[in-house]
User: Fold these one by one.
Assistant:
Number 1:
Amino acid sequence: MISMASPDGFSMPAEYWQHSHTLMLWPERNDIWRNGAKPIQKTIVELSRVVSEFEPVIVGVTAQQYMHARNMLPSCVKLFEISYNDIWIRDIAPTFLVNNECIRGVDWKFNAWGGCEDGLYYPWDLDDSLAQKLLELYDFPRYAADMVLEGGAIATDGEGTLIATEQCLLNKNRNPSLSKNDIEYRLKTYLNITKVIWLKSGLMFDEAGGHIDNLCT
């Protein structure tokens, strides 16, 4: 764990900046995905194939599913073995920060979009630890954040402005002890941004509780 991104000069880039590669996770849960996860596995195979036409794709997979995933995924897709609760790596991976050619990552706390009150599954401990595992795997320095946040809950232009919804970030099932000012302060210091644009809510029936990504990405 190191200090905070803002004084260190690291900041969150815009999502449309050039990537080195795309990270994905392999689905397998029978209690979340229908028909033994076979339909969603086929979707992940097709998605990885399409994305790999434009940038490298790396897929994390459990030990139990490794050979099955290897046989299904395109040969150009690289695999690595890791444990997790479900596949939403957009929400549970680190928020990667850049400063010239250097990369660091913010490891947010994760409670499955609402914890014991409104969370979508239990347990979520493996998902909560995935960001730290990835940062250690890549040998990137880690900022251990003291608040719950998912990657899909924030969006930035890479030039100092961040967009989020009050419905999600201010929900008491995320950070009940933090005020709006407390959360905005952490966003600014962890991500090195200067302005937060708050929308009241996200899309209706969003099971993630008002994520911004399905509005502006």
Note: The two ends are 30 Å apart (CA to CA).
Number 2:
Amino acid sequence: MSSEKHTLGKAIDILLAALEPLDEASRETAIIAVCRQLNLAPVSGALFVSDPLPHETPAPQLSLEQPIERRSRVDIRSFKEQKKPRTAREMACVTAFYLQELAGDEERKDSISTTDLEKYFKQAGYKLPTRMAQLLVDAKAAGYFESTGRGEYKLNAVGYNLVEHNLPGEG
């Protein structure tokens, strides 16, 4: 173990060096994970991960208890933990909802494919289904999605309402 004393400035330099090579979304995820690990929460009025720079328009404070339309950026893992999907179909709906309603501008999209499911299931820490290619077909048959062609599916009103109003379900 090093006996070197770390100052606040040194700690900030170490954090900046570790985060600088990452893209914005990865930086945000890393900072949120560290804050959770250290049992830290953003302080009201403090500049935090999702807060704008002083010259930008302020964004609402992140809170999973707020209605969806008032939430600012939330990561897929946190959203999955809030909604607690019990099946891969429910997780597919959570993923589609996240990409339609909550993802940052660079990620936002109206339809999803199995490639998106695999990427976001992994990011969310959700178990991958054995037959990923069949998942969206089954979720469509269950009434949660509409096909938009070329292996792309869009969450319909039933799927949207499942995520917005019915998840998490009763244990």
Note: The helical segments are 8-19, 24-37, 76-83, 88-102, 114-124, 132-141, 157-166.
